[in-house]
Design a protein that fits this description.
By secondary structure, the chain is of the alpha/beta class. It contains seven helices and four strands; from the N terminus they run βαβαβαβαααα. A four-stranded mixed β-sheet has the order 2-1-3-4, with helices on both faces.
Length: about 160
């Protein structure tokens, strides 16, 4: 079962899910407050105004990824069923996936920055060295918050 919040996404996404033979339900903004368990058991349909989101309940993500790749469809917001998130509302799960994406994006940006350290400056400028060491620590910290990463990216851009 795949819960599909199509929103502003390409309807070809639905065709790809059909091609791989997966059962699915399309949901929208009226279902944002319902839990994933409710949507699986009692699906309803409405329209949405956000980017697409998929919730995979006991489905093979790699099979779906291959189908999307063949159709040149990119879905940036996907969650797989867990014991915890099955009880979350669609809105909360979408927000959590969005937050994780933002954190990953900032972590990647910061990683690129620390990979391109000015080595001469690092050896001679104590403030720069301290900043870069802190940046490296944040890149490696799996619990770094969005705010911490964002602040560090900004500080490194100014340095």
């Amino acid at each position: 079962m795949v819960i599909v919040y199509l929103g502003t996404g390409d309807p070809k996404l639905i065709d790809s899910i059909k091609k791989v033979g997966m059962e699915f339900h399309v949901v929208g903004d009226q279902e944002l407050s319902k839990t994933m368990a409710e949507l699986i058991q009692h699906p309803t349909t409405s329209k949405g105004n956000q980017p697409p989101f998929l919730y995979l309940y006991k489905e093979d993500a790699s099979l779906l990824a291959k189908a999307f790749q063949q159709e040149h469809i990119f879905i940036g917001r996907v969650a797989e069923n867990t014991e915890e998130n099955i009880q979350w509302s669609l809105r909360d799960l979408m927000d959590e996936v969005d937050l994780a994406y933002e954190i990953d994006t900032l972590r990647t940006e910061l990683y690129i920055m620390v990979q391109n350290i000015d080595t001469k400056r690092f050896q001679t400028d104590a403030d720069y060295q301290h900043l870069m060491r802190h940046a490296i620590a944040l890149v490696e910290d799996p619990h770094a918050s969005l705010e911490q990463l964002d602040d560090m990216v900004r500080a490194c851009q100014k340095a």
